[in-house]
Design goal:
This protein is an alpha/beta fold. It is built from 3 helices and 3 strands; from the N terminus they run E-H-E-H-E-H. It has a 3-stranded parallel β-sheet. The longest helix has 15 residues. The protein starts with 5 loop residues before the first strand and ends in a 5-residue tail after the last helix.
């Protein structure tokens, strides 16, 4: 049996709670029959393998601060 695909919803800086909750509820409502819809942290995106099982990566808004999204997704300096 193949691994089910995920729909990942970014949950980090730059995302308002209202936008996150609205997106999560709607994605689950429309897609739960076929995908596992779940929240994902910036740390998980940086450090865990997710690309092989991800059908869609969603960045909800709410604060219109895209630089916050990108700064959290960068790897820390060595």
């Amino acid at each position: 049996m193949s691994t089910p695909l995920n729909v990942l919803l970014y949950n980090g800086s730059g995302v308002s709670a209202a936008s996150r909750d609205f997106a999560l509820a709607n994605l689950r409502s429309f897609l739960a029959h076929r995908y596992d819809v779940q929240l994902v942290s910036p740390k998980s995106l940086r450090e865990e393998p997710w690309t092989d099982t991800c059908a869609l990566l969603v960045f909800p808004g709410g604060r219109d601060r895209s630089e916050e999204h990108t700064s959290e997704l960068q790897s820390p300096p060595l």
